[in-house]
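Researcher: Structure prediction, please.
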Amino acid sequence: MPQPLNKEQEDAVTHTGSPLLVRAGPGSGKTLVITERIKFLLENGLAPSEIMCLTFSEKAAASIRERLELDEEITKKKIDISPMQISTYHSFCRNFLLENTMSTGLGMHGGIVNRATFLVWGLQSIDSFGFDEHIKIGNNAHEIIEAMIDGISTFNDELVSPEELEDWVAKKISSVDPERDIEEYDLVHRLDNMCKMYKKHVEFKKQIDAMDFDDLVVFSCKLLSDKAHDNVLKKIQKRFRHVLVDEFQDNNYAQFSLVQMISRDGGSGAPFDNITAVGDPDQNIYRFQGAYTQIFDHFRKAFPKSREIFLKKNYRNPKSVIEFSSEMIGKDTYRTPPPVAFEAVKTGGSKVNVVECGSDLAQAMYVKDKILEIKNNNPEYTFNDFAILSRKQRDGLIIAQLLASEGVPVKYVGKTDVHRSPQAKFVFSLLRVITDPANSMVDITRVMQEYGITEQNISRVNLEATKRARGRDDGDHAFDVISDQNVPDLSQKGNVKEIHAMLSRFIELAKNHTVSDALYKIIRTETNTYKAIANDGSIEKFIERSVLSDIISSAYDLESIMPLATMRDFLDFISHLHKFDVETDRGLGTQEAVQASTVHQSKGLEFKVVFVVDVASRKFPLKDTPKEFYVPADLAKGVQPVADPHEEFLREERRILYVAMTRAIDHLFVTYPTHYEGNKRGNKSSIFLQKVNPKTNANVDFTTTPPLASTNVSTSFGAVDIIKNERTSLAVNQMQSGQYQSAIESIMDLAKIRHFEKNGNLAAFNAGGFTIQSSGNIDGLLDGTISQRKEFSRPHLSVTAIEPYEKCPKQFWYKEILNVLPEKKDAPALTKGGLFHRIVEDSARRQLAGKGPDDHKTLLKELESRWGGEASRAYLRQPITKEEEDKESLEPALESFANWSKANKNKIVALEHGFMISIGGFPWKGKIDRVEMTPGGDIVLVDYKTGGKNKVLSQQQLSESIQLNAYVMAARAELQKDRPFGIEPGPGEDWKSKKVVTASFFFPEKNHLDTDTNGIQLSSKNSTGKADGQWYDYQVNDTDVENARKKLEAYITAIQNGEFEPTPGWRDPCDWCDFKDICGDAKIA
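Model: Predicted structure follows.
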């Protein structure tokens, strides 16, 4: 049961008659107000499909949707909220643009390209931008490009186009006087140069038919404000009768502009009362993404008749945390304070702990020891209840390492450095050999080490190569040596020969395949790199697999802007990418672990115990680096900041600390060191702390800890590695000080560690006759490092994702739990299938709009025009015959579709209908390709299946199909809505009594009776237009539907209980399994 609403919450939930602005501080029940307001709107006549809720993260959107789905009142009334638009801005805009491609002309066939990829593009294209003498390029090229890319994003956030910027520069550049205003003179010339890159950036995205995330919002705003397509705006205004905005303080100008257009009356253009914005100006910490502090003033200006409500009660934080954090944020003299002070609902609670530590290591040890102490004294706490928050990610690493060395699970969310991963290092060695075999001695050495060549033999190979290279300039000759193995005393010639054969094979592989294909094969199937860690469910190995997947993803990123990229291009891309400050999430789902992350990554979360670390000068606030490329005041469209740029920077830094402090439910620790290793200068606490006098503050317990001398703390993240490095350092120190007995114990510890690394336990460790025992605590330490296993943590599943579990639960485990890459990646097949779906969907949409069905010739023209742009990229390194064969296979498939469309008497009801239904208390989602209504008023469902030329399905298989029966359940639920499938029922129409009678699989590529031996279609004699052999119709049966429901309930229960026992060859032979090469239970026919 949700908590009862307080007066302010009740007022916000039930408000009507004007736009609503809710100022909701930390722990004030913001999400509760949003979900209860949605329920209020539903109770007052709005359909779920008429409500839009926009937020800033998929996690937040999922949380709101989940609360609604599990709500007792909604469940009791059987309200299906799946049609409700609860999503991020980017998700909504992407779907909106795809729905309106005929109005925009945008295909987005190149997809969404991320910031990191454009950073590398900018660095590689820097010579083409034509920068003048006002931009000095040296070793700072990557800094200039990063600043300009971020500047371009800022201009996008303000909806300032390259043309507008160019006009502004043209007017200013001739009139600005450097002697009167040197700052404006420099800005105008900097923006003149950035404009050159801005234009090239736009041109390049058009060329590759791709977008970045900013474009999704920008193009949506352009379409909605385009008078030539005013019907699009009116349609969406009519569709959404109420818009809710979560985390309103994080909106940028473009996002708020989008919301304003949707929430205005399409006829008069006047503000309508259908908008609710909920946010907290004190938690505005995303200025780097365009958020601006004056957005609340902007709302008041845009909606002058709006009502404001302040949620004053804080249900999360102890009274001391509320008062201390409020005092700290109150030092911002430009801040508009809330109308009244926050009230603490919780009584009692400990004071805020501010701890001055003598060194950064002392800080790390304090946090580590305090976590273990609190956990020991509070057995009800889990490790999920602890968080270590820092301003920069690397500041939390040493604490995470110390916790890991004690066997404490740590979720370290931060930058994935592929160059630290052992598997990644080996992969890059292989790629460098492939790219330049004549100059690869160092990398060939690493490869030989990996494959067990002894140090003596490696030395012999390298010595021979050095002799051959002496006096020559054609390479280091290591590759030649392993080719002929003509080396004195080489005792592993056969092994070396195999290594050369493998490398030669990889060189050919890279020549004849795309970078992503070659990488995929090298990582996944051609070496043991991935297979060696594929069956390990530990967190560490999950991270290693993620790193390898990231490498492959980087290849896809490169190919999105450079389709003909070579392996050398890829290595350059990775080296450039490493220069930029690009963070990737190493979060591990819902595993129980202490979270070590930045404050930004903790936004929206709460923890029982929070440590805010490094709250010191030069750390909090960070050093202010003024932006060189910003929107000038006379070009800006949003409400301007109240303070100068430096003061705005300090204001945001203070807010970031405020957000960190207010994550704490029970205990808050704020720590800072007075000395950092390697820095002779002493250190003070942050200026933000100094201004609230923590030593004498009534809400604070102030303590100090002495400094600790530096120890050899490993840079590795693995707990076993940390223990090994500590024991190695200890053994050396003991030897140097003459403590030989203790040194031998430490060496015995190292022997145990080596055995543990190899076997994962100490069960069969043999001391080899030594009577000296290892140290007393090594067994416990190593047992503590046995990592948590990856568990099922998906918030929902696709109904098609359950098919592997039906066949073999272990196959599902590999795919959905461990995220293991499949043995084969068939990009062309996926591309071909996707293209068929899009062509027939577009054709059906034209039919739905009132046009007649397309004939075969029209569909072939569509195939011809779209193949080059959408499909050909996947075939770049495929034999030309493969591309021709796949393209030709779609021709008869499209003819089958055209014949069926022409003869089909049914009416199209919906296309690509997405749904989410709850079965067994778990959300299942899916997408029905086509929903039709027969002349008699019954409902028919169709699912397209490309491929499957030899597919044969029995009636029993159809009746037991989880997919088809789930589609039936979803369609039946949809029919009970007031606007089923988004359709307003006509007078006297009763959709709720309609029946779903048939669900069909359509295999258009499958040979059938109406084709000759070459697969060429002759004619269709079936009056329905359905070619024999291509259609499998399931006549819906209530018993079958109920059996499928029970199966899904049983499957999700088994999955949540961790039941993944293999059933090799039960329904399908293991020969067809994507994971047969790594599964020890596979039975190959």
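Model: The longest strand covers residues 907-919.
Researcher: Thanks, that helps.
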